[in-house]
Amino acid sequence: MHIEVAVEGPYTVIRLAGEVDMHYSPRVRDEILKYLNGRCNVLVDLSGVDYMDSSGIATLVEGLQLARSMDLRFGLVGVHGPVRQVLELARLDHVFAIHDSVEDRLRSDRHN
Amino acid sequence: MSAPAPVPHEAAEIVIEVSDLCVSYGRHEVLHDVHLQVRRGEIMVVMGGSGSGKSTLLRALLGLQSPSRGCIRLLGQDITRLGEHAMHELRTRMGVAFQGGALFNSMTVGDNILLPLREHTRLDENTMRIMMRMKLALVGLSGCEDLMPAQLSGGMIKRAALARAIVMDPPLLFFDEPSAGLDPVASAQLDRLILKLRRALNMTIVVVTHELESAFAIADRITVLDRGRVLFTGTPDALRRSEDRRIQDLLQRRADIAPVDPEVYLDKLTGAPPDA
Ligand SMILES: Nc1ncnc2c1ncn2[C@@H]1O[C@H](COP(=O)(O)OP(=O)(O)OP(=O)(O)O)[C@@H](O)[C@H]1O
Ligand SMILES: [Mg+2]
Question: CB contacts < 8 Å between A and B, how many?
Answer without folding.
Answer: 63
